[in-house]
Amino acid sequence: MAKDFYETLGVKKDASKDEVKKAFRKLAHQYHPDKGGGSEAKFKEINEAYSTLSDDKKRGEYDTYGQTFGGAGPQGGGFGGQGGFNRAQGFGDQGFGGFDFSQFTQGGQNFDFGDIFSNIFGGGRRTQQKRGRDISIDIELTFSESIFGVERKILLNKTSVCNRCSGTGGEPKTEMSTCKTCNGHGRVREVRQSILGSIATERACEACHGKGRVPKEKCKDCRGAGILKKEHEISVKIPAGIDNGEMVRMTSAGEAVSGGTAGDLYIKIHVKKHPTFRKEGNNLVMDLNIKLTDALLGATHAISTLDGDISIKTPENVSHSEVLRVKGKGVPIGEGGGASAGMSAGKGHRGDLLIRIHIDLPRKLSREAKKLVEDLRGEGV
């Protein structure tokens, strides 16, 4: 039974080309395979119907004979015509996820469905600016550096803007002339024939890298590219209070590209463990082991903090696991962090130092000590 292409698109037989195109775009959005509820079979049918009804000759043959000639189904009719479709191995890099539209052929001509559908559905291929590659590196910090913040110098071997020409591609003080390839527009317009008609696209001019002007004398270092591979030192400011595993992103610190923007630099932080302190939110936490007599009578203890040595006094009859708080000796909050490890937090706010008490009970008592404890027991202690 012959398919009713008008019914497939949901239009009347006297529908105009614009009505046919509008119906096709709506259904393609609804049923293309990469969307939830999409259908490969339905998408194939509406594409087949549109390829026929959008062409005056094919539409005339279809209205007269119920089909078009030149092979089974509409000639080159979408996915059912010559070339068919190939299921891609992965998703995301083709025009529609899961389909390799670039291999589609019609009458010996190649069509890039990625370009076609990006124009129909508002894709950004025509105006998308080139972007350099992102870079990721790992940095190891001491615990103190992670608490107070630190500034590091990093040497990267990456594609960067040429220092000699500052990215222009020309020798210093050389004159710039209008690019003959794009006539100074910086972009080249291309028109491709497809089953949907003529599709116009634009791309950056390769001769001038999208700038519209070219140097009369090319730079001797980068040979006119404006970029080159070299060692580049950058300064990285690690914020105070950063946690192990966090990422720091530096915009445009990645690899440069001619006629576009540089990629980003991603820095993954690895923090060494501290033998005494651990971080809990904005507070620093440590354990303090004290003797039983100090717990009963109270005592003064010297503690080495990240800011230096301090003395604290444990009160009489302090309990096991009790927490003592030393204000302002924790993690810097906001802009209060110092520029390097060991610096004070300045005028900014800080968390607290929490000291958790652990009472060491003696494993063995001397005869005299045992007698004293028995005397305490007699007093009800």
Structural description of this entry:
- The chain is of the alpha+beta class and 381 residues long.
- A four-stranded mixed beta sheet has the order 12-13-19-16. Strands 3-11-10 form a three-stranded mixed beta sheet. A two-stranded antiparallel sheet has the order 1-2.
- Mean pLDDT is 79; it is low at 70-116, 118-127 and 336-346.
- The chain contains eight helices and 19 strands.
- Helix 2 (17-31) packs antiparallel against helix 3.
- The N and C termini lie far apart (101 Å).
- The longest helix has 15 residues, at 17-31.
Question: What attributes does this structure have?
Answer:
three-stranded mixed sheet, 29% strand, 381 residues, 19 strands, 20% helix, four-stranded mixed sheet, alpha+beta
What distance separates the N and C termini? 101 Å
Query: What's the Cα radius of gyration?
Result: 36 Å
SSE series: HHHHEEHEHEEEEEEEEEEHEEEEEEH
Helix fraction by DSSP (H/I, runs of at least 4): 10-25%
Q: What does the main sheet amount to? A: 4 strands, mixed
Strand fraction band?
A: 25-35%
Main structural class: alpha+beta
Count of DSSP H/I helices: 8
Number of DSSP strand runs = 19
**Largest beta sheet: strand ordering:** 12-13-19-16
Low-pLDDT runs = 70-116, 118-127, 336-346
Please outline the helices and strands.
Blueprint: H1 5-9, H2 17-31, H3 40-53, H4 56-65, E1 105-106, E2 109-110, H5 113-120, E3 135-141, H6 143-148, E4 150-161, E5 176-178, E6 187-194, E7 197-204, E8 213-215, E9 227-238, E10 247-250, E11 265-271, E12 278-280, E13 283-291, H7 292-297, E14 299-305, E15 308-314, E16 323-326, E17 332-333, E18 349-350, E19 353-360, H8 367-378
Parallel strand pairs: 3-11, 13-19
Antiparallel strand pairs: 1-2, 4-9, 5-8, 6-7, 10-11, 12-13, 14-15, 16-19, 17-18
